[in-house]
Amino acid sequence: MHSKINIFDLIFFANYAMIIIVSGRFFKYFTRGFATAIALYPFIIVRKKELRDKPFLVYHERIHLRQQLELGIIFFYIWYLIEFLIRLISSYSFYLAYRNISFEREAYRNESNMHYLKKRKCWSFVYYLSRS
Ligand SMILES: [Zn+2]
Predict the structure, then answer these.
(1) Beta strands in the chain (DSSP E)
(2) Is the pLDDT of residue 12 over 70?
(3) Is 49 helix (H, G, I), strand (E, B) or coil?
(4) CB burial class (10 A; 0-12, 13-18, 19+) of residue 87?
(5) How far away, in angstroms, is 60 Cα from ligand 1 center?
(6) Which of 41, 75, 96, 115 could form a disulfide linkage to 68, CB 3.0–4.6 angstroms apart?
(7) What is the Cα–Cα distance from 5 to 11, expressed in whole angstroms?
């Protein structure tokens, strides 16, 4: 039996796709212990099993998954890196540069609002380029 899948079902699925992977090794090699969770669409990779139960952390990464989808994934990383470097030059601080990336500002600002992704408009991270 065939079930029809329309484009709206596909968009809905893509927007809510999320697979959580636990890998301590990934963080050891790729982030040198800096991060505890990373979003690589459609995956959220966490350093420890217990982190899967942290709703704000998972929601923060889900916001990143949405941002990645909106930028065709690859352009998210390119933009992320360029914005990080620009902010690093102006702040001389790795931490401040990271925290002020528009993607991070949006994710940190909204990680505790579990309804955020339902009402969020496309490319909302752009508003956070100039906001702190
Ligand atoms: Zn983040």
Answers:
(1) 19-22, 37-40, 43-46
(2) yes
(3) helix
(4) buried
(5) 6
(6) 41
(7) 11
If you measure from the C-alpha of residue 1 to the centroid of ligand 1, how many angstroms do you get, rounded to a whole number? 42
Q: Are 65 and 42 in contact (CB under 8 A)?
A: yes
Higher pLDDT, 1 or 92: 92
Residue 8 structure tokens = 């709206």
Q: How far is the CA of 107 from the centre of ligand 1 (A)?
A: 6
- C-alpha distances in angstroms, 42 versus 16, 67, 72, 92? 9, 11, 12, 32
CA of 11 to the centre of ligand 1 (A): 23
pLDDT tens digits, residue range 20-67?
Answer: 999 998 888 887 767 899 999 999 999 999 999 999 999 999 999 999
- Separation of 27 CA from ligand 1 center, angstroms? 15
